Amino acid sequence: MSTVKRRWPLILFLVFYLLFAVYSHKDYGITFDEWDVYWRGKLFYTKIKGNDPVLQKDFVIKQKNGNKDLLYSSSVYPAVLYIFNGQENFERYHLLNLMFAVLIFIAAYELLLSVFKKPYLAILSPIFLVFTPRFFGDLPANPKDMPFAVMYFLSLTAVYFSAKWEEKNRLILLGFVFGLTASLRFVGYSLFAVNFFYSVFYVKDKKILDVVKESFIIFLIGFLTNIFFLPHLGADPFNNLKNLIVRNNRFPWIGNLLFLGKEYNLGKGGSPLPWFYLPVWAGVTTPVSILALFLTGFFQKKKNKLIDLFFTSIFINLFIYFLARPTVYNGLRHTLFLLPQMAFVAVVSFLSLNGQFKKIAALFVIADFILISIAYISLHPYEYVYFNSLIGGLSKASSLMETDYWSASNREAVRWLDGYLAENKKNKANIFVCGDNFSATYYFSGRMALTQDKNRADYLICYKDSYLNGQIKKPVLHTVKREGAVLNYIYGQ
User: Could you tell me if 451 and 394 are in contact, meaning their C-beta atoms sit under 8 angstroms apart?
Assistant: First the structure.
């Protein structure tokens, strides 16, 4: 079978996906922190292209005015986006984010095709990724976690496909992709451990001493790559790496969050999250069919190197999480990179079933995916607030868990309020916005002005999870809802 014929399902899938991206990218609102990521990307691009002396220092040396985000946060991905979006149009940023995800769909297809050989089976892997709402729903407007999730998956793909390559080429490739991925999020350094243990236990004819030698070379190449993309490390590799570890493990986040109906306050003097915070979030936001098939993979007698690789990755990262107990918040945000891996294990597990079990599983998956499709229609463009039937969907989860924690619904709230002002012939109104205001002010019309004083505001826009809702005295004028759950409040008269 020719190369094109072996990939016609993938080509067809990508055509429909890109059409979806083109027609939907303007629907998504700006999320908290999104503007900051793109701003850093612009500065990093300017630093490299213009050799700006001020920016050269800002990305390397700690300044009195505070430049920690430039020092410790990767700006590579948004810098690449800025090349294609010099106008800094956020709708175009969302389109570019969606297009970048094409890489993970291709990788997932190729991995499955390499094992099961049949194109109509290989296409199930991209489909399973699409029906993982907490992954798929974050693609357009999460430039922090989604690029890392894609790159981590691509790194695992590189481990699998390069196993039979010439040693020199394999070490260079793995060192580069591991270093690039680690520059996006520090937990990407777990890739070095994943590759080591996978090579020791699952790759034949590999002596431990050879694996140690290769791992050391890969680490050196990866660390040098990381320094290139995160220049601050190069100024003082030992101390700055130590500072990076501390910052990532104990990120100084202060705020309130809702978990199982209880309010937790993170920060100085706050109550720590329970150990089961992430397992519960994964349990109530991952599609039930994918969750069940993923767990089934543990008990299957016949495994292959592909599923061994992904299980190794998931186990090591979970071990690191429970050992280090890093600062986490906003649900699965910091472990979203594990979701496409879980979905991929689920599809491999499904295809490995036999006889009657596979037929029952197929009916289960089809039924669940139909329900997710209905949820996508009702939730759009907030697919990332999906909750599964184990918790009763979004309507039940709304009073128990955080929902639109990044306030993507500010766009819809502003659009409604602008229409209301026009209808009531109000040419000027002072608006207070809870949380980061750029996600709302970007959509302001000429009749809307931002105020920082909520007591002097004519109208207030406040996402559901903000603690400020309890301090607002004005009546609720309108709410942004999905599936009966409030995502955003508009206060005023």
Answer: no
Beta bridge partners of 93: none
Contact indicator for 368, 470 with CB cutoff of 8 Å: no
Q: Tell me if the pTM is above 0.90.
A: yes
**Cis peptide leading into 381, omega within 30 of 0?**
yes
DSSP 8-class letter at 261: T
Label residue 298 by pLDDT band (50, 70, 90). confident
How far does the chain reach from its first CA to its final CA, in angstroms? Answer: 67
Tokens of 68: 């920690």
The CA angle 465-469-471, to the nearest 5 degrees, is 145
Do 304 and 446 lie in one domain? The reply is no
Do 134 and 336 form a contact (C-beta atoms < 8 A)? yes
Nearest Cα neighbor of 436 from 29, 24, 78 is: 29
Return d(Cα 191, Cα 314) in angstroms, integer. 11
Q: Is residue 132 part of a domain?
A: yes
- Nearest Cα to 34, choosing from 72, 80, 90, 84? 90
Residues of the domain holding 480: 410-491
**Burial code of 51-75, b = ≥16 C-beta within 10 A, e = fewer?**
eeeebeebbbeeeeeebeebbbbbb
Q: Tell me if 465 sits within 8 A of 385, measured CB to CB.
A: no
Contact, 218 vs 206, CB < 8 A? no
Nearest to 409 by CA among 368, 387, 369, 379: 379
Which residues touch 47 (CB under 8 Å, ≥6 apart)? 55, 56, 58, 59
Beta bridge partners of 64: none
| pLDDT value at residue 268 | 64
pLDDT tens digit sequence for 77-116:
999 999 999 999 999 999 999 999 999 999 999 999 999 9
Our measurement of the distance from residue 154's CA atom to the centroid of its chain's CA atoms, rounded to an integer in Å, reads: 14
Cα torsion at 352, 357, 363, 364 (round to 10°)? -80
Residues 443, 446, 450, CA angle at the centre, nearest 5°?
65
Residue where one domain finishes, among candidates 307, 334, 367: 367
Confidence at residue 393, expressed as pLDDT on a 0 to 100 scale = 95
Distance CA(60)–CA(55), nearest Å, equals: 9
Q: Which residues contact 258 (CB under 8 A, 6 or more apart)?
A: 264, 400, 401, 402, 465
Query: pLDDT by residue (tens digit) across 446-473?
Result: 999 999 999 999 999 999 999 889 899 9
Q: At which residue do the structure tokens 């150990």 appear?
A: 275
Asked if 180 and 283 sit in the same domain, the reply is yes
d(CA 384, CA 145): 13
Q: What are phi and psi of 487, to 5 degrees?
A: -105, -30
What type of residue sits at position 286?
T
C-alpha dihedral (306, 311, 316, 318), degrees to nearest 10? 150
Decide if 107 is inside a domain. yes
Q: Percent of the chain having pLDDT more than 70?
A: 93
How many domains in the chain? 2
